[in-house]
UniProtKB/TrEMBL annotation:
It holds the Pfam family adh_short_C2. InterPro entries: NAD(P)-bd_dom_sf, SDR, SDR_fam. It comes from Streptomyces hokutonensis. SUPFAM superfamilies: NAD(P)-binding Rossmann-fold domains. This is SDR family oxidoreductase. Belongs to the short-chain dehydrogenases/reductases (SDR) family.
């Protein structure tokens, strides 16, 4: 049985990924900052007779990340799949964010994920198998001005993933990104609410405007993002390494 750790597994895309991996027979460890919410999410996932564990951990806290990896090693003997998924930072323009907010966002989106990868990947290489998947955003390829921290830092994550993909490839470890587009989560609702308020528009009007730019005509379901992550984490994706899989209903305009 493979062991998978999924960041932000209590809700949204992270929870859908955990559900998909658990359904495939993986032992899944979900992490998050709030014990009660996390344990409730794990209980829901266990309803499918899956082996799911809740592990309170803050990706932005170095000590917490190290403790989480030590716990996984102690209880399960190592990690086979690492899904680096974190909630988005507060919205804001490129010059609207002060140093403190940039540092906080950097710990959450860049330094925290890289820290976990650094802790997990040598063990994966030693065992001859590993899958690392960074969940990013299509804003990396088609920047959104009011999501500056996400655009800048997830662009850095994408570059880091490319470099990491070369490090242990010969040992059976792959590193890829899933760039998700508009997805039906609380995060999307929050972003659209902020935009509607700033534009003095109703939420439904702004939602319709946003969907009009998506050829598929709708936002993704979290399960659709999870399917892409699960594929990259599978044996079938052994020769896919260092790439970005865009899941956005055709919205991104670049080739």
């Amino acid at each position: 049985m493979r062991t998978a750790l999924v960041g932000g597994g209590s809700s949204g895309i992270g929870h859908a990924i955990a559900e998909r991996l658990a359904g495939a027979g993986d032992r899944v460890v979900i992490t998050g900052r709030h014990a009660d919410v996390l344990e409730a999410a794990a209980a829901r996932l266990r309803g499918a007779a899956a082996e799911v564990h809740a592990l309170v951990s803050d990706m932005a806290d170095p000590a917490s990340a190290a403790a989480a990896m030590e716990e996984v090693e102690h209880r399960h003997g190592g990690l086979d799949v690492l899904v680096l998924n974190a909630g988005g930072p507060p919205p804001g323009g490129i010059l609207d964010l002060d140093d403190t907010r940039w540092r906080e966002a950097s710990e959450l989106l860049l330094l925290g994920p890289l820290r976990l990868a650094r802790l997990a990947m040598p063990g994966m290489a030693k065992r001859g198998f590993g899958r690392v998947v960074f969940v990013t955003s299509t804003a990396v390829r088609q920047p959104q001005p009011d999501l500056a921290a996400s655009v800048v830092l997830r662009s850095a994550v994408t570059a880091a993933a490319k470099l990491l993909s070369r490090e242990f490839a010969a040992s059976g470890v792959t590193v890829n990104c899933v760039a998700s587009g508009a997805t039906s989560t609380e995060r999307r609702t929050q972003i659209l609410t902020n935009r509607a308020r700033a534009a003095h528009l109703g939420f439904d009007e702004l939602d319709a405007q946003d969907l009009a730019h998506i050829p598929a005509g709708r936002a993704a379901r979290p399960a659709e993002i999870a399917a892409a992550v699960a594929f990259l984490a599978s044996d079938d994706a052994a020769y896919i390494n260092g790439t970005v899989l865009t899941v956005d209903g055709g919205r991104t305009e670049t080739i």
